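2 proteins. here.
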Amino acid sequence: MKNVDARGCALSGATPAAAESLERALAALLAWRSGAEAHVAAALEASPRLVMAHVLQGWMLACGRDPQRVAAVRKVLARASALPANERERAHLAALAAVRDDDYDLAKALLGTLLRTHPRDPLALHAAHSFDYITGDTTRLRDRVAALLPSWTHDLPGYHALLAMHAFGLEECGEHARAERAAQAALAMNPLDARAHHVLAHVYEMTGRAAEGGRWLTTHRATWSADSMVATHCWWHLSLFHLASGQADRALALYDERIRAGGSVEVADLIDASALLWRVQLQGGETGARWRELAAAWAVHIDDRFCSFSDLHAMLAFVGAEEWECAKRLERSLASSQALATRHGETTRQLGLPACRALVAFGRGDDGLAVSLLAAMSPQARRLGGSHAQRDVLQLTLQRAVERLRGTQRTGRIEFATT
């Protein structure tokens, strides 16, 4: 039996073969590479009683915005909770149970406590980092990782991922030079770390270096575009660099060839698609019939009542496509959800519903209302989750609405580039 992992964390139910497959799964997950699911399956086939294989499986489902995947955590918990587990593993299961119960604050607190006792648990950090991002907890996104770095050494498997996570936290806190150095250090240790490539895309975006960012992503395309968990999102970043360089046609070509080529129904991919088309349209680009297909893909999520960040991007698609009935249905669903004593209810009251109403107002040409709603929510917008680069869609819309208002005062006309 192999009862510890490569960083000295105890494993319950491990065999040598199962532990090896688990380590491969963890390595893939930490570097945002494909294949973690297959390695987990191999670990569980070798030892169905390997608790941390179930735990890893659970976090792969929980760390996202798809309510169906998060709901599947229940089955994983049911299997894992019946197995003998050590204190660390039980802490993981308790945090997963908090996610199952929609208590993200409790999940983050439990993971924080776990990491203070077991600072070399990279899966706990991966999960905590994911939820800091999802909940818009920007300062903790940086500081949580920084507090753990002294407990690690460069030779421990997964250290590159800590550097990449730290780099992202630094970038989101505006420390762009430090973020760039940390991401480059991560890549020096593991050139296949797609997480670090992603951080550099954000650094170039937030420092206004579109040409340099485009060159970086293009040069390293073979690394992040194949067998990577972040391929579509990096294509999105490359599209933004094209937009910033005045090349809307190239951005739309990537939309067609890379972002929507397969008609993905993954929530993360739908978010990227909405965010890109909206930016193209704000710049006066011709989006053609693209909005209609995207709005249809979003329609099944109208009643998710799960994630305000997703609601916002669904509304972008409905307004862009002028699918006003879908927009009304989403607004009614959110108006109902805001009364609930849930995580989604709270973010809907504070941010989701005002943001969606602002987008509808903007799409219908009521720029005064759009400006009023967007300006009022700006100080809290980070609580929607996501990154600065992603939330910029609200600031860009606010700026465009202000420009149109000023144009209205001069010409009496308001125009919105519709399909």
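next one coming up
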Amino acid sequence: MERRTFLKQGVGAGLLLGGLPHIARWAEANEAKWRSFEVVTKLEVVDTDGTTRAWVPVPLMVDTDYFRRQGADSWKGNAANARLYRDEKYDAGFV
């Protein structure tokens, strides 16, 4: 039997709708399981004559449906001054 004929007869739609409750229950059961990642950026400045400036991007600054922050960003190094900045226009963060 061809797929189009099968779907036209309504049997396929009945099978699809019958599976929806199972999918919804699976999504609810797995909702709290988020994967987590640690992003490490390493900067090595070769020529250190004079003042050196580097802009290092950080992950998204706000939570979204697909991305959740797990706390404050941290950084370490031998820089005399490092601060977190936020570009309001693009909602981008950088150190």
